[in-house]
Amino acid sequence: MPRRKPVRSRKSKRKRPARKCPAWAEAEGGGEAAGTSENGPTSPMKVPKKRGRKSKAELLLLTLSQGLDCQAPEPICVQKVLGSNEAPDGLEATPSGRPKRRAAKVALLYLQELAEELTSVYQPLAPNEGPQEPESDGSRKKRRSRRRKEEEADDDDLSQDVDFVPSEEVLLEAAEEEEESDVLLSEVSESEPEAVRGHTLRMQSAGKSKPQCRGLAPNGFHNSIMAPVWKCPSITHSLRDQHYSPWEFPDWLPSTRKWTFLSESECAQYLPGEMKSPLFSIQREGIEEDGVLYRINRFNSLQPHEERLDVSFFVGGPVWAMEWCPCPEGSAAPQYVALYCNKGMDERHSLAELHTGPALLQLWALGILQPEAGSATKARLAYAITADHGCIWDMKFCPSGAWELPTTCRKPPQMSRLGLLAAAFSDGKVLVYSLPHPEGLLAHKRAQVKGGPFPKHTICKVQCIATLQVGSIQAGNSSECGQCFSLSWMPSKPHQHLAAGFYDGTVAIWNLPTKSLLQRVRQPDGSLKIYPFRCFLAHDHAVRSIEWCKVNSNFLVTAGNDRKIKFWDLRRLYEPINSIKRFLTTEITWLLPYNGVTVAQDNCYASYGLCGIHYIDAGYLGFKAYFVAPRKGTVWSISSSDWLNAVAAGDITGELLAAVLPDLAMNPLNIKRPSERRFPIYKADLVPCSSAGGEEPRPKTRTYSEMTKDHCLRFQDTDLRSFQNFFSREPTRRMHEQEVKAELSLDRMQLESIHKGGGQPRGPVSSPKEELRPMFWSDECCSDLLLRQLVTPPGPHPYELRPLAGPA
């Protein structure tokens, strides 16, 4: 049995032995015992001192001992300080022998006497004498603890030291310094992980103070929210200077020989089925609306609002894929958006089977989206391309090097190039189109159509530049991987690789400029057929989304129907870098400055209260997932802006919101103001046509004709010109209320649902929705109201802006 140590009672404390009176106290007091006076013994009050802080006497002794030379200095004259009429006799002493501090002059006299005694005792070492042996750590610690206890016992009564009371100015300065230090420490502890707190404090002590993030920015957001946004433009601009190219794929130019214009009878089978849009109304925050119901014909648009400059047009069906056409940064060029919509509102597609059929790819011209250029122009259909490869699930433009000026002189039959567009079809093929500027195509149309009826809309049959297909030359033309659902173009120059995800979980990567005879085949019509140089099985089911890392092209992230998100290193594809199984991901986006992805989530596998938008670290930093924004319904689409450090997402409830992300390079567990980082852009609701308030219950129908018979759509736009008092305004309060009390009716058609593209809704029943009013986010200029408010640069904005994907 181990023997227990005896426990010492707190009451049985050993008494300290009385210390001897020092020699200077006996000399001053005439040999009497220290601590006695004429009036009797005194018992000073013990005041606890702050640990680690030295007294003034110790500081003076330390200074004198460091500044002493080998020769003893001359003694300090007391008369210089006290004056000739004052004498140091009759001083009272404490029990330890130290004189009481009655006034500043007496204390100064005491310190000078100590200095005299120290200088008289100090003698330099002889030349033949060496330094003494260092003391052990144990003896040094014992001496320090003994000295600390003696100083605590020798403290005098502070109430008697009237002359040592600091003034009010000194107290105010000390309070301000302490408050600033507390604020800095709190900011570091709440916004940074434990590993970097010490480094931050060391940087602050070295003179590199942390920028203050207090108060509100000019746009109305808090400075702590805007701090990461201010860093992103310079980071994005510098990286695009390194990884973007002014010109790529010089051989892939549009030619008039490959573009054939169709008559109205020939293009009838490719057109969407709906001739007119459903009734809808627009409510703009801060503007009293008269409740007018609008209806737009197919391929037409409304005149932009004179104050808000919002754009609305009808494309004829539910939009499933949409992509902005990139152009050089800072250029005042017209903006274009490519989109695809299904032919019918009630059309359904099977994911497991390949299918072909007529499809129409539309290119809409939106004009110069800059407020300095004047009022916004009316949206128009620039031209459309017909295809027979089934529906389009995704489309991607070449990030850079594909756009040139419309006035570029080209020898016929070549035309100036607008961009290179890759489209993923339901027959398992990926087609690459070289799109011309509408001006050049219109000139060719006028030269070709002479004397006959001029078609109202420009619809063409186009021969693609290249067909990308999985397999090999010996495998034939049939694809065994299923439909292609997602695309991603390599973001760094020369943009030679294109990745795609398929139904069976396969990811294929093509080398577009390859010269290999095993990967490149010239077709009889002059187009190319390219086979992938790399294929690997990424998931057990369909690949819903795929995204390339923008900083390093060796890394790729995929999300599949097996509920997994996998990060891949293309140099070692035998296993993923990290695999996360959380929920069913509908779409992912990878922001430039972070080592992780922001994901949109289907609510079928989500835990209660955790459905919405999440940021997931790739695994290098080991951070937990950060909850960006809660959503009651499935988030179908998400897109990011590298310039603004923000994401935008649309869900099944018909709400489009944006969220400004924090600095996710740090630990996101202690993020401040999470609810203030997101804000609504607009909300779509299905209401009865007879009642603008919408008190009547929504119909439980599954067909488009029954839904639009007695109901209309109501769009509520948010005034994004200013964010002052934004969180107390009605749109924000409505958004927070919807996050808690939103009601979903899944047994009816979700006509108000926002679905930019990416795939089919889950379950056996496909619920198409009509994306009627695209709220466009310019990719190249600071033109949208939201983007103008988030970034307020000095002078014209020199950078382009990534699209915040929104509804149509």
UniProtKB/TrEMBL annotation:
WD repeat copies, ranges: 536-571
Xref: SUPFAM superfamilies: WD40 repeat-like
InterPro entries reported in the protein's UniProt record: GTF3C_component (IPR052416), WD40/YVTN_repeat-like_dom_sf (IPR015943), WD40_repeat_CS (IPR019775), WD40_repeat_dom_sf (IPR036322), WD40_rpt (IPR001680)
Matches recorded under PROSITE patterns: WD_REPEATS_1, WD_REPEATS_2, WD_REPEATS_REGION
Region (Disordered): 1-53, 122-212
Keyword Transmembrane belongs to the record: no
SMART domains reported for this sequence: WD40
Top-level taxon in the UniProt lineage: Eukaryota
Biological-process GO terms, alphabetical: transcription by RNA polymerase III
Cellular localisation: Nucleus
Assembly description: Part of the TFIIIC subcomplex TFIIIC2, consisting of six subunits, GTF3C1, GTF3C2, GTF3C3, GTF3C4, GTF3C5 and GTF3C6.
The protein's name: General transcription factor 3C polypeptide 2
Source organism: Chelonia mydas (Green sea-turtle)
The organism's taxonomic lineage, starting at the top: Eukaryota, Metazoa, Chordata, Craniata, Vertebrata
